[in-house]
Amino acid sequence: MVKILEGLRIVEGSAFVAAPLAGMTLAQMGADVIRFDRIRGGLDNGRWPVTDKGRSLFWAGLNKGKRSLAVDMTTPRGQEIVTRLICEPGEGKGIFLTNLRVRGWMDYPALKQHRPDLIMMSVTGDRSGGPQVDYTVNPAVGFPMATGPEGSAGPVGHVLPAWDCITGQQAALGILAAERHRRLTGNGQLVELALKDMALAMLGNLGIIAEVTVNNYDRPKMGNSLYGAYAQDFVCKGGGRVIVVALTQRQWDNLKAVTHTQVAFEELAVKLGVNLNLEGARFEHRHAITQVLKPFFDIRAVEEFEAAFNERSVTWARYRTFAQAVREDPDISVDNPMFSMLEHPGIGTYLTPGNPIAFSDAERIAPVRAPSLGENTDEILSGIGYSDGEIANLHDDLIVAGPR
User: Fold this and answer.
1) Which range of residues forms the domain containing residue 241?
2) Virtual CA dihedral for 150, 153, 154, 157, nearest 10 degrees?
3) 96 and 16 inside one domain
4) Is 217 within a domain?
5) Is the peptide bond before 139 cis (omega within 30 degrees of 0)?
6) Residue 403's pLDDT is what?
C-alpha cells in the first residue's frame, strides 16, 4: 500500500468486481476505505473461489486494506448509521462509492440533503440502470464472436472479466477527479459509470466501431493470431507451447535472427511480392510465415531456445496454466516488490499483491489483508460519534454486528 492518498476517506457499498476493485485500488494508495455490508454478509460474501471451509478467496482478494462495518440497513437506526458515515463532515470525507441499486434514503438526492458537497460514484450495469454483468456485456458488444479458432462458429467467452476490471479502475479515477473538482470549487456531484458504456467506449477506442462503419468489415475469429501484425502459438518438441509476437520492426528482426530464418523470409517476400517489414503484410501472410517458423519449434523443446530468445529480446511467452504460472514465474514471488507473504485469518498464508503502481516519492508498503465481515464495526461507530453505551445497545438490538 502506498500512502499517497492518506487523508481521503471513501465509504463503499458494493458487490462483486468493479466497485470493490475501485475501493481497493484507492485503499492500496492510502485512502481509508470503509465497506458496509448486511449483517449476514453482502452479495459477494461467499463468492468463489472459496476454501474447503467456505471462506471466500474472492472477498479476501478484492477487499484488501479496507475496514468493514456490518449493519442492518432495513432498520431506521441502521440507515441512520450509514447516512451518518457517508455524510460525516470533514475534509477528504463525504465520498460514497457503490454499485448497489440505491433507492430512497440512500440515493444521491437524499444523501445530499445531509452533505451538499457529497461525491457519489455510482457504477451501473447499463446507462439506463439496467442489470448487466461482464458476462452479459461481453457477448452484447461482440468479442466472443471474434474469439476462438479460425473458422469455428460458436462464441467463446473470456474467463477474465475485462470490463469489470477496466470499470473498477475508471471508477477510482472518476472519484479522484471529482474530489479534485470539489477541492477547487467546493461542489460535490453524482458521478455515474455504466459497465456497458465502458465496453462500448473501448469498442470505439480500439477502432472496431470505425472498422465496421467505415470499412464495412465484421472481424472474424483468428485463433491466436494478432490482428494487424504477426503473432502465433507453436507446439514445441515435448509438448510445451509458446507464442511469439512480431508487432514492431525490432521484434520481427529479433525473431528472424534467433530462428535463423532471415534468408527464408527474404525468399518468401520475393515469392509473395510483398514487404514483410510492414506489420500489415505480416498479418495478411501470417499462415505462410508460420510455415517457415514451424520447423524451428517442431525439433526443439522450450528449454533449448528460451535462453537465446531472452538474450535476443524476442517477444515471447510460454503458455501456462494458473498453477504453472504461480509455481514457475519469478515475477509471481516475493522477488517482485508488489508481493508479500500475508496471513489471512481463517484462510492461511499466501502470496498477496499490493499496489502495482510504484511512486518515486512515496514508500511502497506491504499489502494489508481484507477485514472479516464487521471486524471494524465498533471503531467505525466510535469514529463517527457513537458512545460506548450506544454501540453496546446497537449490538444488543442486532442493528450492527462484529467482534466485541
Assistant:
1) 230-318
2) 30
3) yes
4) no
5) no
6) 85
